[in-house]
Design a protein that fits this description.
Distance between the termini of chain A: 39 Å
CATH class of chain B: Mainly Alpha
CATH architecture of chain B: Orthogonal Bundle
Order of helices and strands of chain B: HHHHHHHHEEHHHHHHH
Helix content of chain B: over 70%
Oligomer: heterotrimer
Structural class of chain A: mainly alpha
Distance between the termini of chain B: 28 Å
Number of strands of chain A: 4
Number of helices of chain B: 15
CATH architecture of chain A: Orthogonal Bundle
Chains: A mainly alpha (about 325), B mainly alpha (about 325), C alpha/beta (about 350)
Radius of gyration of chain A: 19 Å
Largest interface: A-C, 62 and 57 residues
Shape of chain B: globular
């Protein structure tokens, strides 16, 4: 695992602080808890981080482009419940999954349409969507959890391949693809460009609207994917799933060094940020530290890990 | 007529009136003096916190920690009261704690120059942890009768919390409109580097704004605790920051700073309050309440944005 | 270099916090959270969330059991009642090789897979407060079934309002299983025994005190003929009582016009019960609930049998019905409200 991340980071030296922090956390908990440094525990953690990780991919891109999507948790629940309801109506599970993903993309498209096409403020639009979609979830299933999916579906979230959880493999592959896109393609140049100076991109004849639209659609799609994986892992679709997940996602992204005002950041950083918060939480859980202190520790870490960076501007 | 439409808050005023008319048609109970007083009464702490949030957003920042600050101050006021401290002193100390929280935010944002959202996201976690920690996991409740005055008392025949809110709104409208400090906030939000070059101490203004926000949240939390009668540290003010932010932006504020007014924000809070109250009064199914609320928020933003586009046409090259 | 130093400093700080968090959360019991598997049996008690007074009272009971039985008990949960976070935490605890877990599941179905995993590792599983039927859990500890509690609440309010009129329900979450089960049971009870009682609406507070308060305000405004309110979770009755008291004081309601009952911790509603705003409140001792759960886990871990009517020290006899263990409910009234210590 760590070999992989270090190889990943050779290209960007900016990750040094985050990596040191991650290694420090790993070493620290290995000393403090005899249960921490074990294959089962690590695989466990990987299995748990998938939902936050999947959403963190488009979130990183959106933050790089200088916007933010707060509706991801509600999209997650909305598409999960859509899928569950479709399945209850007797539709094949994989077709239902397609319906769930489609629902997510649609939500993303609504966000994208309002934000990109009509230049509305991303934060407000997505807060509105956050409230509305969560409400719609209750409308659709009247708050009752949906379960009883076929065993083949649980493969996604519960199956291990060669000792590694399938969903973690999926996450890593997604990160690699996304990272490739964000390093080698023109699309990434536009995303970074919009984050740095939207007007320049606009005047270079590139459709800012289209790029933003795509980003929010992606966010919808990945939130829906996260919903599918969460459902498969928990064997149940509930109205409350994904509540406050946006805060975890944004925290991981920021600890990973993505600049909140856009223009800078990397998916590799987000991945390391993600590992930092999940291992921190896991380690503290293993030590039996109350969640109250966990919140304080996470906050302090965020402040110190990100706080030492130089932010220019005002 | 045309001039009237160009008032910054015009669209949200029109939309609010439309919503009011709609609810009045659906339910005869809605448009009544009693109910209007109830709506105002339910949203007092929102009004007060929203004043602070308006200033923060004017600066181009945002404050995610207000809910947690509310929890810390309300919990500590509860603790002071349970130790038999006089209600007025406890309330005062609560406000002081609010100011201290604001200073912590302000220090990291203004002095250490860390972006607002990161600092307040971090302090959101930290203050919440502290709040639940000092509460020991139990509720703050069974407040003495003297303390009830802050949330339920009357002064000159008017409700004390409402008077407090009106007074604070008046003060801050004056501060933002007619004082140098207010103009500085608009200047920094409008164009930070220009404001800096014009000799404005950006750090000092930012620090002040966060301290004032802490103060306002402190006041709001005393009223909150007294009104609701019990405080649960882990959930008090949970969704407050998003709701207040939405209210500011519905009221015509811009997340990029420099645009917005306290009066507009108050309309935004009122709008949200009316929706929440109206949906229940008109006996909408509980499952539909949140969905409708979210839809109306988005609609309000759509209307706002249309207005802005209309106003800006001709002023500058359109970017779309 | 400076950055490196800062990062290290961050880590050290986190370590310090972790260390002090650790000692204070385990004070009095287990000396080190990290190395407790040797010798002492460890149990993980997992409520729905951390924060509500109800769970704080339960924690006291769990800690008492820890001392009495000379085992070590970890009491932890996420700060919000979120099923995914709860399950992550249970998984982490299975890694720690605890001997047993006592879980109050947020979602009865979602805990299925993790319970299966626990059972395969020979970890004892007992659910408490909320059940997860059709899983690998061995016992369910509760004051009574959701149906009994719901019916008891309906009976209480039906008697207080004289068998007819409008009643409103206040719940913590529209999606919460035990809230749905209790309110459905109450509705069915009204339909069967008090056909003239009309349940006008159900409002949800999402566990937010201010929202519960606003909900209650809107209720008495919307339904001027409202006769009763049932609060199905710890936060609802005090909010309803506060609103009614204020309305009585303001003169918009007459005293005793609206009867309130519900499930609430006595210390929270003490004043309302003394004022007569709440006549009867239904509760059980969450501390005893947790105590029994730990006790059962310890019995199971030692391979002992659980039998009906068995005596549990400092709790009393319990009723065992199949896989369900009931400790009984209590009615809190003006006469006995001072005798509760939670």
């Amino acid at each position: 695992m760590s070999a992989w991340t270090s190889q990943f980071s050779l290209k960007s030296n900016k990750l040094v602080v985050q990596l040191v922090l991650l290694i420090f956390i790993l070493v620290l908990f290995s000393i403090l808890s005899p249960y921490f440094l074990s294959v089962t525990n690590f695989m466990n953690v990987l299995n748990q981080m998938v939902e936050v990780g999947l959403i963190a991919i488009p979130m990183t891109m959106i933050i790089i482009s200088g916007a933010m999507d707060l509706s991801v948790g509600s999209i997650l629940a909305f598409s999960a419940v859509c899928m569950g309801v479709a399945f209850e109506r007797g539709i094949n599970i994989w077709v239902s999954m397609g319906i769930g993903l489609l629902a997510g993309v649609l939500c993303g498209a609504v966000n994208g349409y309002l934000i990109a096409r009509h230049r509305m403020q991303a934060i407000v639009v997505t807060i509105g969507m956050l409230v509305m979609l969560r409400g719609l979830v209750y409308v659709i299933n009247e708050g009752r959890p949906i379960s009883g999916f076929p065993d083949s579906f649980y493969f996604l979230g519960q199956q291990y391949i060669g000792g590694v959880p399938f969903n973690a493999i999926f996450l890593v592959v997604m990160f690699l693809i996304a990272s490739f896109v964000m390093k080698k393609t023109r699309f990434s140049t536009y995303v970074y460009g919009i984050g740095n100076n939207e007007e320049v991109v606009h005047y270079s004849g590139i459709s800012v609207v289209r790029i933003r639209f795509i980003l929010f659609m992606l966010s919808g799609l990945f939130s829906a994917l996260a919903g599918v994986f969460l459902m498969s892992r928990l064997a149940s679709a509930e109205a409350t799933s994904g509540t406050n997940i946006e805060l975890d996602v944004i925290t991981a992204t920021l600890i990973g060094g993505t600049h909140i005002f856009g223009g800078r950041g990397s998916l590799a950083g987000t991945f390391v940020g993600l590992l930092i918060i999940v291992f921190l939480r896991n380690g503290l859980n293993l030590l039996g530290v109350s969640v109250l202190y966990q919140a304080v520790i996470l906050g302090a870490l965020l402040l110190l890990a990100v706080g030492n960076k130089k932010f220019n501007g005002v | 007529m045309k001039r009237l439409l160009n008032v910054h808050e015009a669209p949200i005023i029109v939309f609010t009136i439309l919503v009011i008319v709609l609810f009045s048609i659906i339910s005869p109970d809605f448009f009544q003096f009693d109910n209007i007083r109830l709506i105002l009464d339910q949203n007092i702490s929102m009004f007060i916190v929203a004043i602070g949030m308006t200033m923060v957003i004017l600066l181009g920042g945002m404050d995610l920690s207000v809910g947690s600050v509310l929890a810390v101050t309300a919990t500590s006021v509860g603790l002071f009261l349970s130790h038999g401290i006089h209600p007025w002193i406890a309330a005062f100390m609560g406000i002081v704690i609010g100011v201290l929280c604001g200073m912590v935010n302000g220090y990291f944002i203004a002095v250490r120059k860390i972006p607002d959202i990161i600092v307040t996201l971090a302090t959101m976690y930290i203050f919440r942890g502290i709040a639940v920690g000092i509460s020991g996991g139990t509720w703050m409740t069974n407040f003495p009768d003297g303390f009830r005055y802050f949330g339920q008392g009357t002064l000159l025949g008017l409700s004390f919390p409402l008077l407090t809110a009106i007074l604070l709104i008046g003060i801050f409208i004056y501060l933002l409109k007619f004082t140098r400090m207010g103009r500085r906030i608009y200047a920094i939000g409008g164009n930070g580097s220009a404001a800096k070059l014009a000799g404005i101490s950006v750090a000092k203004s930012k620090f002040m704004v966060y301290v004032l926000t802490g103060l306002l949240v402190g006041v709001a939390s005393v009223i909150f605790a007294s009104k609701v009668g019990s405080v649960q540290a882990s959930t008090a003010g949970n969704s407050l920051s998003f709701e207040v932010m939405a209210a500011v932006l519905i009221g015509g504020g811009s997340i990029f700073g420099g645009i917005g007014t306290v009066a507009g924000t108050m309309l935004g809070v009122l709008f949200m309050g009316i929706i929440k109250n109206g949906l229940i009064i008109s006996k909408v199914s509980p499952f539909w309440v949140d969905a409708t609320t979210g839809f109306l928020i988005i609609l309000a933003i759509v209307i706002n944005t249309l207005q802005r586009i209309r106003q800006n046409k001709g002023k500058e090259g359109d970017l779309v | 270099m400076k950055k490196l130093a800062l990062a290290l400093l961050t880590g050290v700080l986190a370590l310090n916090l972790a260390a002090c968090g650790n000692t204070s959360s385990n004070a009095g019991g287990d000396n080190n959270g990290g190395s407790s598997s040797s010798g002492k049996r460890t149990y993980f008690m997992n409520p729905k969330s951390i924060g509500p007074a109800y769970w704080a009272a339960a924690e006291k009971g769990a800690k008492k059991a820890e001392k009495d039985l000379n085992v070590s008990v970890l009491f932890n949960a996420p700060t919000e009642a979120d099923s995914a976070k709860q399950i992550n935490m249970i998984q982490d605890m299975l890694t720690r090789k605890v001997s047993g877990i006592g879980v109050s599941p947020n979602d009865a179905k979602a805990v299925g897979p993790v319970f299966k995993k626990a059972a395969s590792q020979d970890v004892k599983i007992v659910t408490w407060d909320s059940d997860a039927p059709e899983t690998d859990r061995q016992y369910y500890v509760a004051p009574g079934t959701d149906q009994e509690v719901g019916e008891l609440l309906a009976k209480t309010i039906g008697e207080e309002i004289g068998g007819k009129g409008q009643v409103a329900f206040m719940v913590a979450g529209l999606g919460s299983q035990n809230q749905i089960a209790k309110s459905d049971a109450a509705k069915a009870y009204f339909a069967a025994n008090y056909p003239e009682v009309e349940v006008v609406t159900t409002v949800a507070s999402d566990d937010d005190q201010q929202k519960a308060y606003a909900n209650a305000q809107n209720l008495i405004k919307t339904y001027p003929d409202l006769k009763g309110i049932i609060g199905f979770a710890g936060g609802e009755p005090p909010a309803a009582a506060e609103v009614v008291e204020q309305a009585v004081k303001a003169g918009t309601l007459e005293k005793n016009q609206i009867a309130i009952t519900g499930i609430a911790v006595p210390s929270v509603v003490k004043n309302y019960i003394k004022n007569g705003t709440i006549k009867t409140d239904i509760i059980w001792d969450p501390g005893k609930l947790a105590y029994v759960t730990v006790y059962l886990l310890d019995q199971l871990a030692q391979g002992k049998e659980i039998t009906d009517g068995m005596e549990i020290p400092s709790v009393g006899t319990i009723k065992v019905d199949g896989q369900n263990v009931f400790i009984g409910t209590l009615e809190v009234t003006n006469e006995n409200v001072d005798s509760f210590d939670f």
